[in-house]
Amino acid sequence: MLSCGEPSGDVYAGALATEIAARIPSAEIFGLGSDRLRGAGYAPIVVGGPDDRGSAQQLAGHAESAAGECSLQETGALLARATVLVSNDTGVMHMATGVGTPVVALFGPTVEQFGFFPYRARARVLQRDLDCRPCSAMGTATCPLGHHRCLGDITPADVIQAVEEMAA
Q1: CB distance 117 to 125 below 8 Å
Q2: Could you check whether the bond before residue 50 is cis, i.e. omega within 30 degrees of 0?
């Protein structure tokens, strides 16, 4: 069982805020990325709230889960130990920037002009320039056009490359 405030070893990410798990190929990202990053000595960990446990279970075998297990303070402590966080525009992303953890942020329905981007220089934002963006001020679980390309077009290779750059 994961100790929320004191994970052992170097943590890759604190990892994926699971709110995006249904919108991007999370298992593929973790399958490719965790093998490569575990070989470099990092431990992928999924963070999120109690509602994210189901999405985190889909990543079993690729990452350890702290989803729903840690308080906000414990999540902050875990993020502070993380080498890099992969997240969409969530509160977890802002927590990571607040504790000084580099961030790879995946932006889909929302845009920088809305004020939700990471406020630190140690962040890499992955996004696609699509005519349909932004589709809402806060993002939606369902794409109004039915394709969710804003996140789906961000490839696992894009995410892995950004993680490797931020972790270097």
Answers
A1: yes
A2: no
Distance CA 150, CA 128 (A): 6
Q: CATH number of the domain that 52 lies in?
A: 3.40.50.2000
- More reliable by pLDDT, 155 or 132: 132
CA nearest 78: which of 159, 18, 3, 166?
3
User: Closest Cα partner for 164 from 18, 60, 47, 34?
Assistant: 34
Q: Which of 99, 98, 9 is nearest to 45 (CA)?
A: 9
10-14, 71-75, 95-99: range with lowest mean pLDDT: 10-14
Q: Does residue 131 form part of some domain?
A: yes
3 domain residue, yes or no: no
Tell me, letter by letter, the H, E, C secondary structure of 81-147. HECCEEEECCHHHHHHHHCCCCEEEECCCCCHHHCCCCCCCCEEEECCCCCCCCCCCCCCCCCCCCC
**Measured torsion, CA atoms of residues 162, 26, 21, 136, in degrees rounded to the nearest 10:** 50
Q: Using a cut of 0.90, tell me whether the model's pTM lies above it.
A: no
